[in-house]
Amino acid sequence: MGSIKKNIFSDTDIEKSIFKDESVFYPDYHPQNILARDSQIKNLTYYLKPIISKKKANNILISGPPGTGKTLITNYVLNQLTDFSNKVKFIYINCIQDNTRFAVLSKLVSFYNGVLPRRGLAIDEVWQRLTELFSKSEIFPIIVLDEIDKMDLDDSSKLLYDLSRFYINSKYFTLILITNHKPFILKLDTRTQSSLFLNEIDFLKYKPTEIKQILKERIEFGLIDNCLSQDLLGYVCGYSASRGGDARIAIDLIYKSAKASEKRGELVILKEVLLDSSKLVDSVKLFEKIECLNQREQEILNLIEEPITTKDLYLNTKIPQRTVRNIIDALEKLELISVDSLSQGKGKTRVIKLRFDKSLLKN
Ligand SMILES: Nc1ncnc2c1ncn2[C@@H]1O[C@H](COP(=O)(O)OP(=O)(O)OP(=O)(O)O)[C@@H](O)[C@H]1O
Ligand SMILES: [Mg+2]
Q1: Is residue 70 within 6 Å of ligand 1 at its C-beta?
Q2: Could you tell me if 63 and 193 lie in one domain?
Q3: Is the CB of residue 68 below 6 angstroms from any atom belonging to ligand 1?
Q4: Are 29 and 23 in contact (CB under 8 A)?
Q5: Number of domains the chain is built from
Q6: Longest dimension (CA), the chain
Q7: Which candidate, 142, 190, 136, 133, places its Cα nearest to that of 163?
Q8: Is 72 near ligand 1, meaning CB less than 6 Å away?
Q9: Both 281 and 297 in a single domain?
Q10: Which atom of ligand 1 is found nearest the CA of 146?
Q11: Ligand 1 nearest-atom number relative to CA 37
């Protein structure tokens, strides 16, 4: 006689959850309170103000390390502006997704409700189409180009030059460029640099106390009461502060450890689970950085196990010395390695050390 099998879901307690509202941890969540960014909000508002009285605003460069609120604050201020004045509209473009001049110009055409024929157009025809739509339109347009440094350099030089010099009937595009690598500006064509007239706003990394303020809302709205101790919260703030003062890391760490604790049937976040999750967050961040390296950069990184001098590194690879030197600079900027100068005999030698734990890359 076969016994009646229990449904495998019957033992799972669907009612019990560590979360009050999981969506506050999602990347597209709009926080009700934006903390620790008063001066950036004030400056951005000030720079955009002329547009309300139909005057020209200078273009704006927003820069700062990852997870410091650049995208959040820009969207927040622009939404406030478009609520205030129905003559102003903005378009948000992420240049990782739309990474060519053609892609951005096509997006701008659709911003004006223009349609491009399926047969495909040459870029000059797209530009022509945009000019027609722009001249007929009544709106004052703001273009946000987020992650602008990820666009091909020639494309961004040309695009920014054209957009910043463009005006018809005293109407302009106002550009907001967002980047976490400000020196990219210096690589643009010098004509483009001088046409842009940028007002700059810097976003500094968050301090542990600021991260604590930012987390308050997510914890209050997102988790059941008292499931995260003050000690562990302090650990999360210190952890993300030491990884670039990145609010996203802090939010992700709490989310991952709440998920993992719940999976174990717990309604509190346990210390061991939080520590495991922090290793996971570290390795994900590391993978993201390493994935962006080109083949030669990866080859050089693979050669560094123990501390090694630049001289030994040159001997171990067929890549020309000059290129290796550039690669070392790039890896140092990404904080994957550190480079120290040591006096040796008469001259100086440079010693390279890894700045991450290679075991994080296993599995
Ligand atoms: N001041 C803040 N108050 C509340 N939440 C914040 C604040 N700053 C950042 N966050 C949250 O942290 C996360 C990262 O913010 P955001 O995406 O704006 O960073 P970013 O500077 O644009 O980073 P990246 O350079 O990686 O694009 C988002 O979930 C955002 O809601
Ligand atoms: Mg961003």
Answers
A1: yes
A2: yes
A3: yes
A4: yes
A5: 3
A6: 89
A7: 142
A8: yes
A9: no
A10: 27
A11: 1
Any domain includes 131: yes
Domain end among 234, 255, 290: 290
Task: State the distance from the centre of ligand 2 to the C-alpha of 117, rounded, in angstroms.
Answer: 32
**Ligand 2 ion: nearby residues, β-carbon < 5 Å:** 71
Identify whether residues 75 and 195 lie together within a single domain: yes
Strands (E) in the chain, as ranges, are 59-63, 88-94, 140-146, 167-168, 171-172, 174-179, 198-202, 308-309, 337-344, 347-354
Residue 302 is which amino acid? Answer: N
Ligand 1 centroid to Cα of residue 2, in Å, is: 56
For position 80, which CATH number holds?
Answer: 3.40.50.300
**Which residue range is the domain that position 340 belongs to?**
293-361
Judgement on whether residues 343 and 260 belong to the same structural domain of the protein: no
* 245 shares a domain with 107: no
Cα R_g (the chain), whole angstroms: 25
Q: Which atom of ligand 1 is nearest to the CA of 69?
A: 18
Ligand 1 contact, 66 CB (< 6 A): yes
Q: Are 203 and 169 in contact (CB under 8 A)?
A: no
Task: In whole angstroms, give the CA distance from residue 219 to residue 215.
Answer: 6
The pLDDT tens digits along the chain (363 residues) read 556 788 877 766 666 899 999 999 999 999 999 999 999 999 999 999 999 999 999 999 999 999 999 999 999 999 999 999 999 999 999 998 999 999 999 999 999 999 888 778 899 999 999 999 999 999 999 999 999 998 988 999 999 999 999 999 888 999 999 999 898 899 899 999 999 999 999 999 999 999 999 999 999 999 999 999 999 999 999 999 988 899 999 999 999 999 999 999 999 999 999 999 998 888 888 888 888 888 999 999 999 999 999 999 999 999 999 999 999 988 988 889 999 988 777 778 899 999 988 877 765
**CA 350 to each of CA 283, 330, 337, 342, 344: distance values in angstroms, whole numbers, following the listed order:** 28, 15, 12, 6, 10
Ligand 1, residues 248, 253, 292: which to mutate, most atoms within 8 A of Cβ?
Answer: 248
